[in-house]
Design brief:
Elements (H helix, E strand, L loop, with lengths): L1 H12 L11 H4 L1 H6 L10 E3 L15 H13 L3 E5 L2 E5 L2 E2 L4 E5 L3 E5 L10 E5 L2 E5 L4 E4 L2 E7 L2 E3 L14 H4 L12 H11 L19 E4 L2 E6 L2 E3 L6 E4 L2 E6 L2 E4 L13 E6 L2 E4 L4 E3 L4 H7 L3 E7 L2 E2 L2 E8 L6 E11 L4 E8 L7 E12 L5 E6 L15 E12 L2 E8 L7 E11 L2 E9 L1 E11 L2 E2 L3
Parallel strand pairs: 1-2, 2-5, 3-6, 4-9, 5-10, 6-11, 9-12, 10-13, 11-14, 12-15, 13-16, 14-17, 16-18, 17-19, 18-21, 19-22, 20-23, 21-24, 22-24, 23-25, 24-26, 25-27, 26-28, 27-29, 28-30, 29-31, 30-32
Antiparallel strand pairs: 7-8, 32-33
Length: 468
């Protein structure tokens, strides 16, 4: 048996499986992945933001300077809890520091100003997978360790069509009008050009006029991070964006943001991640795992790895658990279990999206015990032709292998399994669906192109057994 395990691990590494064994093997590593995720801890020392000058319920008295003073004092004292008490506190951008738990008590609300001038000067971050200096995220940290955002309060970015969302350039849905700032009118293209030409990052200075909206929470190169219990609302752009983070836990967070690109949680080139007991209701992907776009992703060559998603609820969104599209650094060992997904506005359940500009290897996506009421398009979608019209170097074909769904049920969708690869090569391999049933499939149970090593066992679509 030990020899068989060793052989199986070797075969999984090169993209092969042993019949009857590989389905169970990945889950034997699950406990080790979970045990390896370290949690932060803090001294029982409180720093009340009102003691540093923050005033509640006064929209003219922005509190970010007081909150930053409390955070700095807490960090310099060796750590503890920076407490936001009950009440509404209007604020500009906040910077987190090591050994600080930003704790929002029940009934507390941080409302972020939509005055865009507050979010300059720019900071070093990443926008849609490309490194740059961009508008300051609403909550930001870089290179810190042992930090948290916790409590039963609310963090509200106050984004809407009148403030941030129109900057996407969509006139019909988000109210953009001629003369308004818009990323679609040059800023996004300029940034992507910087990435393709490998312009030095110090020269990638994006301005407000470029229209690249900031994230609600952006934590870069941080370790031992906890986001727990809070409600997150109305983000200008992605809601939670951890970048190059280690030991990240997102627990019991309620996310509601229906703006453009309102991804719920996007761990990018992160390792050892736990997302559990969260609720997502978003205008884009609920969870999107990333690792950099094109040349920048390959330059860092840092995959997202060892990620657990469990007991989460997904409502609206482009996808429930998504890998890509900025996945050039690769992704490995993603575990999804015991989730509930249900909405006519949830497009897909499990989705992998990439193309031959992105490249990268996605190896090991393991899903079990997921209950889907309904989704709009497909329960499982793998697409290697995503954004196929992109202007880029197309010499980096992606690979997807070892995608396993077990005990997944769905009540309604257009497709069951929708796989779009390349006709001339088989870059998708070892995809299995077992012990599952997809009902109410309205168009086509299976649509598969450019894949090999498919395995279906005890899998029914609209009551009919699916053969290999």
């Amino acid at each position: 048996m030990e020899l068989k395990k060793l052989l199986c691990c070797i075969l999984l590494t090169v993209g092969c499986t042993l019949p009857g064994y590989a389905q169970d093997q990945p889950w034997t590593r699950y406990a080790d992945v979970e045990a390896g995720i370290e949690q932060p801890s803090f001294p029982e020392r409180n720093f009340l933001i009102t003691d540093f000058g923050a005033r509640p319920d006064d929209s003219l008295a922005l509190c970010h300077e007081a909150i930053d003073r409390a955070i700095l004092a807490c960090s310099l004292a060796g750590g503890g809890h920076v407490v936001v008490p009950q009440g509404t506190f209007y604020t500009g951008p906040i910077t987190l520091k090591s050994n600080v738990d930003l704790h929002l008590e029940k009934g507390a609300c941080l409302k972020f100003s939509t005055d865009k001038a507050l979010y300059t000067p720019t900071v070093l971050t990443r926008w849609e997978g490309v490194d740059c200096y961009n508008l300051r995220p609403l909550i930001y940290a870089r290179g810190e360790t042992n930090l948290a955002i916790t409590g039963q309060g609310t963090i509200d970015g106050q984004a809407d069509n009148d403030s941030w969302w129109h900057m996407c350039g969509n006139a019909e849905r988000f109210g953009w009008r001629e003369g308004m700032i818009s990323a679609a009118r040059g800023g996004r293209e300029r940034l992507l050009g910087f990435g393709e030409t490998q312009t030095p990052v110090a020269l990638r200075q994006m301005t407000l006029e470029d229209g690249l909206r900031p994230q609600l929470i952006n934590l870069c190169h941080c370790t031992r991070v906890l986001i727990e219990g809070v409600s997150l609302r109305n983000s200008p752009f992605w809601v939670i964006h951890p970048l190059f983070c280690e030991d990240l836990t997102v627990r019991g967070v309620d996310i509601f943001s229906h703006g453009p690109n309102s991804d719920g949680c996007d761990p990018e080139s992160c390792n050892d991640v736990l997302i559990e007991d969260c609720r997502f209701d978003t205008g884009d992907d609920c969870i999107a795992i990333k690792s950099g776009r094109n040349m920048d992703g390959r330059r860092w060559d840092t995959p997202s790895s060892n990620i657990i998603v469990r007991r989460c609820e997904m409502k609206d969104g482009h996808g429930g658990v998504v890998i890509g599209s900025e996945i050039s650094g690769g992704c490995r060992n993603v575990y999804v279990e015991d989730c509930r997904m249900d909405s006519p506005n949830l497009d897909r359940v499990i989705r992998i999206k990439t193309n031959n500009c992105r490249g990268g290897v996605v190896d090991g996506v393991y899903v079990r015990r997921v209950d889907v009421g309904q989704c709009r398009e497909a329960v499982l979608k793998i697409n290697l032709l995503y954004e196929s019209g992109e202007d880029c170097d197309r010499s980096y074909p992606p690979y997807v292998r070892n995608v396993m769904l077990d005990h997944v049920t769905s009540g309604k969708s257009q497709y069951g399994v929708l796989i779009t690869g390349y006709d001339d090569r088989m870059n998708i391999e070892n995809v299995s669906v077992t012990n599952s049933s997809f009902d109410g499939v309205e168009r086509k149970p299976l649509s598969i192109q450019g894949a090999k090593g498919l395995h279906f066992d005890n899998f029914r679509i609209n009551g009919k057994a699916v053969d290999n």
